[in-house]
Specification:
277 residues; alpha/beta; Rossmann fold; nine-stranded mixed sheet; 9 helices; 18% strand; globular; binds guanosine-5'-triphosphate; binds magnesium ion
Length: 277
């Protein structure tokens, strides 16, 4: 790994689990038993400090203020001893929603989108409205709407695709060939609340088929993983004693593309960094 730019563009609206993943990832890097380990002093940890202390008490942390954007810098090393500086952001998810809603991108975000060699796209399926449409049911099974007066809303699936299209446009990607760069990893977050047996790529394909096709047609080698950063739901008010006694490091897992679970929360990052090593 070179110590040049290993920033990860973490893309996710509010409530998808960005801050909790950041806090749990940081704890795993410090515990040093995964594929990636902390190798020196991390800087700008403030956004994750309060989340980490809530988790230590067995509680969930709060929402990140809409205007916050902080890049935290983590010196890491992999199992082969190669080192890099990982730039991991934390921000209020409203910033992503604003890009999608207004189709305008602030200058600071523009440079991040252009510079980051890897994109980590968090989707929380539980919060994604999946309306019945011709992609999920035959046309004759769909409810008939009185077209005169109903509001036409874009489906969440179409919005997620449009967001990726906006980001690709900003980056100037107009290739007709599948993209090798930026590398893309889709993380289906809060996996524990889904209660499914399927592997992540199949789940994405069955729940959001249009998005899954878009991703597989646009990128050369996208990866689709599941993530349960906490391992279970936690309350922001009632501490979970067992969680606190055993320690948050004992909880949380990644679901690999073949459906296997791994407690190593650093795996999605390692996948993204691999090509940039
Ligand atoms: N069940 C479950 N809940 C989770 C998990 N990770 C996060 N959550 C919950 O999901 C909610 C949102 O998590 P955050 O990490 O605050 O989300 P965020 O993307 O940082 O949201 P903003 O700060 O608003 O942008 C919180 O209520 C967490 O408790 C998980 O792995 N499992
Ligand atoms: Mg947050």
């Amino acid at each position: 790994m070179s110590s040049s730019d290993n920033s990860i563009l973490l893309i996710g609206e509010s409530d998808v689990g960005k801050t909790h993943y950041g806090a749990q990832l940081l704890k795993r890097l410090m515990k040093r038993d995964g594929q990636l380990r902390m190798n020196g002093a991390a800087t700008n940890l403030e956004p994750f400090e309060s989340a980490m202390s809530c988790l230590d008490e067995g509680m969930a942390a709060g929402h990140t203020a809409a205007s916050t954007y902080v890049d935290s810098i983590w010196p890491i090393t992999d199992a082969q001893g190669r080192s890099a500086e990982l730039i991991w952001p934390d921000y209020g998810g409203e910033q992503i929603k604003a890009i999608s809603d207004t189709r305008r991108i602030p200058a600071a975000w523009q440079s991040r989108v252009i510079a980051a060699p890897s994109w980590l796209f968090l989707i929380r399926l539980q919060k994604t409205r999946i309306n019945a449409d011709i992609f999920s049911r035959p046309l004759h099974d769909l409810p008939v709407n009185n077209t005169e007066s109903h509001d036409i809303q874009m489906s969440d699936q179409a919005k997620l695709i449009e967001l990726l299209q906006i980001l690709l446009y900003i980056r100037g990607m107009d290739s007709t060939k599948p993209l090798a760069s930026p590398r893309l990893c889709v993380l289906l977050s809060c996996w524990d609340e889904l209660g499914v047996e399927e592997a992540p790529p199949e789940l994405l394909q069955s729940r959001l088929p249009m998005l899954s096709s878009f991703i597989h047609n646009t990128w050369e080698k996208p990866s689709v993983l599941g993530l349960s950063a906490l391992g279970q739901a936690l309350s922001p008010k009632d501490p979970n004693e067992d969680y606190s006694n055993r320690g948050p490091e004992q909880f949380g897992y990644v679901v690999l593309p073949d459906g296997q679970h791994s407690p190593d929360l650093t795996l999605p990052v390692q996948f993204l960094l691999d090509e940039n090593l």
